[in-house]
Amino acid sequence: MRETEDVIDILVRDLQPVPRHALERRFVLAVLPALAVSLLLMLVVVGLRTDMAQALTLPVFWIKSGYNALLAIAAFAAVYRLSRPDGSEGHFFGIGAAIVLALAAMAVIQLALSPASSYPVLVLGSSALHCPLLILAFAMPILIANTWVLRGAAPSKLGVTGFIAGIAAGASGAWVYSWFCTENGLPFVVLWYSLGILLTGAIGALFSRRLLRW
Amino acid sequence: MIALTRQEIFESACNQSVIHANDIADDMTNAHSEHALKMLMLLSLDGDEAAYRRLLGTLRTLLVGYYGGRIGTAAKSDTEDLVQETLLALHARRATYDRERPFTAWFFSIARYKLIDHHRKHGGRYKSEMELNEEIEGDFREDAIAARMDVERLLNGLPQHQQELIRQVKLEGQSVADTASRTGQSESAVKVGVHRGIKALAARLRGGT
Predict the structure, then answer these.
(1) ipTM of the complex
(2) Is A83 touching B (CB cutoff 8 A)?
(3) With an 8 Å Cβ cutoff, is B157 touching chain A?
């Protein structure tokens, strides 16, 4: 019993005021620099897509960009809530599924409007195999940042938190990658981008117990 | 001297709700209530060491009860270890407390996490997790707290003396005779006061205002 008194003494002596929004600040200070690193990595290693000026006028470019950005925002919001011990993922899985389904519907429309001869390009493109892996690579700085923030926070559902932290990183990595990727097929995006994002999520879940435990 | 300044701090912290000095005194004796603990936590987050010491002392007592009843035959030193670990976790991760939300829900989530972690270390993982998911934190569940806050809000619309009578007779379950002698009113005056208060509350609920 005596010992607990000592613990309380030590904690009281160590008390420092906590600024409002300390947790939010920690997220922003970790994730934004990581995103900058990821963008820099993309610019240096692969560079912007060669037809950038033209691409900016294409709806598919912006749909691709929006898909990743929306997924990332939904996932970051859920991770932020999950970083508190009494937090939950909320409706993340429903919202995420709706975003994927919306893109899938647009992909079907694109296929329906295109000649069958263009299907291989729209579905497989020329980069199907390395696309998910590059997304994973560009996601790593953000996954590391997420893990760092969460290790200082108090998530109580480690598996789900690790998974969604991975999804947030994967979707951010995919968004970064979309500035380089020249694919214009929405079926390609819904398949291979999503695979890269899921892959990052799986890695987040896989290491969650070991890395996020407190 | 210290007690006096703390009282002042409490009063200034409470002044946004319509809670007066008697309630604050009640809360301080009934130190386990959500309201009192949250006030202490808010003061602690701003660096008030006296409030923090009081908070940790109270939480320690709550935790001994919480863990004592849940780790069964395990040694008493296990309970004490868990209590210390939980207080350390609260300290290290206090930035994850959202000032807008109930304190006890946050705090018992940490306690529960530490309990599950403890069971996991000692085998028995699935059993404990299932039990805990079913488990109800009694007074400290968020909906229970919300319900209590609703009652308080309703009561705040009543005249002061009716509020007080309803609180004592209906919420705290004290006898009419005790309440009458404490407030210096006759028993019938207490009964009438409670009756009128309840009627006013019913009218408010029906009127939806």
Answers:
(1) 0.88
(2) yes
(3) no
